[in-house]
Amino acid sequence: MPKQYFSLRNLKFTMHELHKAQEVTEYPYFAHLDREAIDMILESAIQIADNILAPCAIEMDREHMAHFHDGKVTVHPSVKKYIKAIGDAGLIASRAPLSANGSQLPETLNVAMAFVMGAANNAITSFAGLTEGSANLILSFGNQHLKDTYLPKMYAGDWQGTMCLTEPQAGSSLHYITSSASPTSEEGKYKIKGQKIYITAGDHDQTDNIVHLYLAKIDGAPAGTKGISLFVVPQKRIENGQLVPNDVKTIGIFHKMGQKGAPAVHIEAGTNDECFGWLVGEPHKGLTYMFQMMNEARIGVGTTGACIASAAYYAALEYAHERPQGQSLNIKGQDPNAPQTHIINHPDVKRMLLFQKSIVEGSLSLVMQGAKYADKIHSTEGEEKEKYQLLLDFLTPIIKTFPTEMGQQSVSSSLQVFGGGGFCEDFPLEKLYRDIRITTIYEGTTGIQSLALLGRNITMKNGKAAMALFQEISQDIKDATTHEDLKKYATALAGKLGEIQKVTQHLVGFAMKGDTERFLADATLYMEAFGILVVAWQWLKQGTAAKLALLTQNPQGDDLQFYESKIHTMRYYFAYEVPKTQGLMTRLLDDEVLTIQVENGILV
Amino acid sequence: MKILVCITHVPDTTSKIAFMNSDTELNKAGLTFVIGPYDDYALARAVEIKEAQGGTVTALNVGLAETEPTLRKALAIGADDAIRIDADPTDAYFVATQIADIARKNGYDAIFMGRESSDYNGGQVHGMVGEMLGMPSFSPVMKVEIEGTKVTLAREIEGGKEYIEASFPLVLGCQEPIAEWKIPNMRGIMSARTKPLQVIAPVSQENLTSGGHYELPPARSGCKFIDASEAEKLIDLLKNEAKVL
């Protein structure tokens, strides 16, 4: 791994100077914390990242990737060390309330920690992330017996948690699942039968048990998603105080392109009719429960996109400073004896690095914005709370999509800086390039997120959510306009918002005529344009915060350079990235649509 | 057992260091400060001993108010209370004098600290404290085991390790692998907010040294790749360009 994989200076700027993360400690829900405690908890995460995660990142991908042999899955031994460390630190229970022995941490801090640890080693973090998500489901919806049985072990990192949704014939369309649950004589206990695929951390040798949160249909349940229930299906169940096998068999692991340290497992439950599961909450509400965790999970995936791009950017930046190649384009007639210049001095390399920086820091800011809204939901009441919920719901598909889609482009650009070296295993870029590829797929593909944005969120509550967002952006445009040298960018963003609103009206017009297919045909392009503008908003906010610091703090040395770099990168983003929306919006307003009412035979 | 752990408040080892005022002063703007890495090992071992055998661990730092978050971290890791000597730690003798004064007043069975700080890397304080208190002082200590009143130490020496038996009271300058660094947990962080942190005025001590100015090491030059078949060229570069042979 390169020496640096994220910037603490930028992370603290984004958390505290930009999004004022520490403000939430003024509300009762987070009053158990103060700025010093927040910094100390973040420091613990950095310590785990530096000392446990980064050192084994490459090894987990190459020499010691997840392996399946004789029906057993083995993973890198650092997984145990990591899960125990994060469990002991109280970070698997970071979102759980104090009343449940959780740490009740703000989402801004959770995002910051996930960013740091994911940048160090994005494959390993899924082990604890899945345990946390599944434990929180039990905490929210399980009965006391389930809570007492599973939560202490899961939050301590002794037992692994997983999410079992996908089946061979049912992926994005979960209403096609066939896993079944048959009642037994004991209330809440069912016999489970079925297969699940792509179960991350679904089996491994570094925890004492694996606890699957498993979607299945109770015999006689209604058809479709309304018949899906949620069960706890442990790999080993407790009988007479002992852990005994629960007839959950690992059929194999998938040979993935990236994140090879974390196994994606194919499991079969009930091969011998001896698999038992315990109902979580009420029957037939499984998908509803699962989707209550989805906003969190999608912000998590957005964070993963941003942090992988961060690791790639800092590797590329280091290399560009060290690699001599070629001479300045301004030297007339290349002098064969003249020393070579470092590649960072070539404008095209600098452009690539500015692109990466603008995506990494823009994405982090966007993810942190969502986290701030999540914290406000916990801290406020009434109309204010409703407003923040709408803002978070509206932004979630964008938070999931922009950092992952643009993160892929950013990592590709980082790899390009390395030239041929980037394509080889001598550097971590080829790994990061493979790792980030999944992020536009899991927890809802980019296509699905785009349908959610245009098909659902734009019209959510009669457009109230969209209006709330535009009001937030307008306020920040107003703030930026008070600085003479930011006016140009504030005005540009205001103009672009007007344009995207016209595009939106144009597309919604088709929906109103009942032509849903036409309305949503280019939703992904709409998402792309909308995402660029939402991140332009984040860059304008960063520029304003940096300008304010320059005016009021008299920064010197590195600090001065940091704030000037922020403003320069904002200028880059507005000059090079924002204009890309023009082409997208032209396309979205064009009546010639070539993807609908076209015979499949056209694709030969 | 009563253990005093002396910790330094130093820039994170990955920090980019810059100076100001004609290179006579460290520019602290934007720097993240941490417990000195060797002190972190000392603290971790002291907490382990306390957890295994009972007793107390007091964390001490000689520093201005800005060092309190570092002391709070020591409390979060497992120290029971903390003392801050309210003074700028101007040189090793000054710091050792302050530590010795507190130790005389409070009486500790053992005084743990890092083998050296990671800012000035002087490695002198443990020896000075031992001398001032009339206690044996050992450094760099890689292992400490306690059995009743017998203390077994492993110390790194040129080309190997030296095993020593000692008894209390003593002063130890510690280094890895004496213990694994401890990561503060949530319970520790929350309880650190209410653990006692005492601020004490320094005892008078004239500075025996005075600072001059600082210089950064020369910037790293570009990497040169030498083909494996050209060993002579490599030797020539090492001799004449890098001047390391």
Q: Could you please describe the fold and organization of this structure?
A:
The complex is a heterodimer of chains A (604) and B (245). With 604 residues, chain A is an alpha+beta fold. Chain A contains 18 helices and 12 strands. Chain A has a domain at 445-590. In chain A, helix 1 packs across helix 9 (347-379), helix 2 (35-61) packs antiparallel against helix 3 and helix 16 packs antiparallel against helix 17 (557-577). Chain B has a single domain (2-214), classed as 3-Layer(aba) Sandwich (Rossmann fold), CATH 3.40.50. Chain B has a 9-stranded mixed beta sheet with strand order 11-10-9-12-8-1-6-7-13, with helices on both faces. In chain B, strands 2-5 form a two-stranded antiparallel ribbon. In chain B, strands 3-4 form a two-stranded antiparallel sheet. The A-B interface holds A 3-4, 8-9, 32, 34, 36-37, 39-41, 43-44, 47-48, 51, 85, 88-91, 93, 103, 322-324, 342, 555-559, 562 and B 14, 16, 18, 20, 27, 29-30, 32, 34, 69, 72-73, 76, 181, 183-187, 189-190, 192-193, 222-223.
List the helices and strands and how they pair.
The complex is a heterodimer of chains A (604) and B (245).
Chain A: H1 8-18, H2 35-61, E1 67-69, E2 72-74, H3 78-88, H4 107-120, H5 125-141, H6 144-156, E3 159-164, E4 180-183, E5 189-200, E6 209-218, E7 228-234, E8 236-239, E9 242-245, E10 248-253, E11 264-269, E12 276-280, H7 286-292, H8 294-322, H9 347-379, H10 382-417, H11 429-436, H12 446-457, H13 464-481, H14 487-512, H15 516-520, H16 523-552, H17 557-577, H18 580-589
Parallel strand pairs in A: 3-6, 4-6
Antiparallel strand pairs in A: 1-2, 4-5, 5-11, 5-12, 6-7, 7-12, 8-9, 10-11
Chain B: E1 2-6, E2 9-11, E3 19-20, E4 25-26, E5 33-35, H1 37-53, E6 56-63, H2 68-77, E7 81-86, H3 92-106, E8 110-114, H4 125-133, E9 137-147, E10 150-157, E11 160-167, E12 170-174, H5 186-192, E13 197-200, H6 231-241
Parallel strand pairs in B: 1-6, 1-8, 6-7, 7-13, 8-12, 9-12
Antiparallel strand pairs in B: 2-5, 3-4, 9-10, 10-11
